[in-house]
Every structure is written in C-alpha cells, then in structure tokens.
Specification:
Keywords: Membrane, Transmembrane, Transmembrane helix
Distance between the termini: 29 Å
Protein name: Polysaccharide chain length determinant protein, PEP-CTERM locus subfamily
Number of helices: 12
Largest sheet: 4 strands, antiparallel
Number of domains: 3
Order of helices and strands: HEHHHHEEHHHEHHHH
Strand order of the largest sheet: 2-3-1-4
Mean pLDDT: 75
C-alpha cells in the first residue's frame, strides 16, 4: 500500500501542472461517397471502408502545408516555432485534433448503379484556451469545405509529369550499376570507384524522392476520381466550449491507477524474497522461547526457484506494460510528455524555493 499511496501523492502534487483542455467540435457531411457493392450488406466492413476512406481524405486535406498555414495563422506553439521545429508543431496539432465517423447512411440507387453512402463525421480540436479551440476547429472545418473547389479543379487537371522523370532516373541507376561493376573490377582505380559510388547513391536518393512524390500524386488523383461529385457540407459550426474536456480528467485518473498498480507489483517480489517466515535462530527464540534441538535450513528446490523466477519476470513485464500504457494514454489524451516535462522543469525551482522559505 505504501507504493500506491506514494504514487497517488505524487499524482496529486502534479495535478496543478495539467491545465484543463477545452474541446470544440464541428459536424460535417460528405456525400455521395462511392462504396463497393459487396460491402453494402456488411455494416462492419462498410464502416471500416468508410473510416479508411475518410482517413485518406483527411490526410490529403490536412496536408503538412495546410497545417503549417493554420499554425502560423492561429499563432500556435510559439516555443516550437521559435526553435524552427515546424514538424513537431504539426505533429502536436495532429495529436490535438480528431476526426470520427458518427453516421453512415446508404443512398437509394437504381439497379446496376454503384452503391453510395452519406457520411456524417465530427472534427474536433482540444486546447487549454476555449477560444483557440473554437477558432482552430473553424479553420480546420473550412479546409474541408474548400476541398469542394479543389477537388473540382483537380478532376480536370492533367497528371503531373513525374512518370517520365522517374523512368529516366531508373535508367540512369541501371547504367550506373553497370559502370560501378566494371570499375570495381579494377581495384587500383579507387578514385573512380568512389566517384561512381557517390553518383550512384545520389541518383538512388533522387529516384526514391521522386518516386515518393509520384506515388503521392497518384494517390491524390485516385482519391479525387473516387471522390468525384462528392461534396462537403457543414452541419454544425464549432461552438465555444464552456466546460473542460471530461475525457482528459478521466484519462488523468486512469494513468494514476495504472502507475499505482505498476508500482505495487515491484515490492511484491522483494516481500516474497525477504518477507514472511522466521529467518535465523534469533527469530526462532523470539517467536518461541524454548530450547532448540537443532535448526534445519530452508533449501530451495530447482522447481521452486524456477517458479519464483517466473513470477518475478511476469510481475516485471506486467509493470513495464502498465507503465508504457499509462505513458501512451498520458501522451494521447492528457498532455504531450515533452510539454509536461517542460512544465515540471519550470515548476521545480519555485517549489523548492517555497519549501526552503517554509523551513
């Protein structure tokens, strides 16, 4: 019970470092969305397919460039922007937003036509400031609505000329491979080998980068074709939240429970090893002050030793798993660990100084 009480005491001490988060949510609809006919009879498969499609659409709409514009416009994460760490700022924004499907409705179609669905989903964003949560959610919802115009233009635009460049680089790689094999047969010419190797590595890097761009463009065009005719509609504007997000506090409580359970597992091994039973002659005399004829020591058998080691390993693995689960929940639902560490580091000097003044 001591480890559990200690963890809960630390948890209560750290509670002021966790600012309340406010969640603002917008409700949107996309229709019509094409659906394979074989999935129309299976609600589970239909939902999985729609969630996958919406995830791909969200990745395209909420691209790095779009998120960077939102971060700059809303003046989010000033510390990360000052350090020119834009990727970390985008990752933080993605962590604070959520897209969730709430309803899927089959649209009536004629015989032989592809099945279509109307998808209703929510877009939410959490932030310590209620007005920031509302403003960012409005901007993110506007990105989906602007996709109506973007998708219309992309349906009539020609594909980017990346395929020919990719094939040209592939041919150069093949030629460099043959040249490298020929040069390597002459070990005396080390400079030539190094030059061809460097050219080969640079060409391969260019090929991979161009191939990645080509695949992204093909995926975007494929989504645009599948999404042709579909439109986004805003059903409910994001309101200004008045109450903190309850999920955050429940997650904070759950993290404390997991860490307390993990902390209670480790002393069990020590108690099993050192606690319980009478150890030594003095302990026997103290427990029963009678003459002793002899002392028979406890000899641990191989089976008992293996069982003890197994229990120790299981407890240790369980403690590690619970700790990792607690950290994951904390990172996803409470606060990024980096920000929590920064807040803790800033709060420690003032807490120590206050304690010294009291003493």
């Amino acid at each position: 019970m001591v480890p559990v009480a200690l963890v809960w005491a630390l948890w209560a001490l750290f509670n002021p470092l966790i600012p309340p988060l406010y969640r603002s949510t917008a409700t949107l609809r996309i229709e019509p969305l094409m659906l394979p006919s074989e999935l129309a009879t299976s609600p589970t498969q239909m939902r999985q397919h729609v969630e996958h499609r919406l995830r791909l659409i969200s990745q395209r709409v909420l691209s790095p460039s779009q998120l960077a514009a939102v971060i700059e416009q809303q003046a989010l994460y000033p510390n990360l922007r000052q350090r020119a760490n834009l990727e970390a700022a985008q990752a933080q924004l993605r962590q604070q937003l959520a897209v969730q499907v709430t309803d899927i409705a089959l649209r009536p179609t004629l015989a032989g036509e592809p099945r279509q669905v109307t998808v209703t989903y929510t877009l939410s964003f959490r932030d310590p400031a209620a007005h920031v949560a509302q403003s960012v959610t409005q901007e993110l919802a506007a990105l989906f609505l602007r996709e109506n115009e973007t998708a219309s233009r992309s349906n009539h635009s020609p594909p980017p000329p990346l395929h020919a460049a990719t094939e040209q680089l592939a041919a150069e790689i093949t030629a460099l491979q043959a040249q490298l094999s020929a040069v390597e047969q002459q070990p005396s010419d080390a400079q030539a080998v190094a030059a061809v190797t460097a050219a080969y590595q640079q060409t391969v890097a260019k090929y991979r980068a161009l191939r990645e761009r080509s695949l992204y463009a093909e995926q975007a065009q494929s989504l645009a074709r599948e999404q042709q005719g579909a439109r986004f509609t805003l059903l409910q504007s994001p309101p200004a939240p008045t109450q903190p997000d309850a999920v955050q506090r429940f997650a904070w409580l759950g993290v404390g429970v997991l860490l307390a359970v993990a902390a209670s597992l480790l002393p069990l091994t020590w108690l099993e090893r050192c606690g319980g039973g009478l150890r030594g002659v003095r302990a026997l005399h103290a427990a029963a002050p009678i003459p002793l004829l002899g002392v028979i020591p406890y000899i641990e058998t191989a089976a008992a030793r293996q069982a003890r080691i197994k229990r120790t390993l299981v407890r240790g693995m369980l403690a590690v798993m619970l700790t990792l689960a607690a950290l994951s929940i904390f990172q996803q639902l409470v606060m990024p660990l980096e920000i929590f560490g920064a807040r803790l580091w800033q709060a420690l000097p003032s807490a120590i100084s206050k304690q010294m003044e009291r003493n």
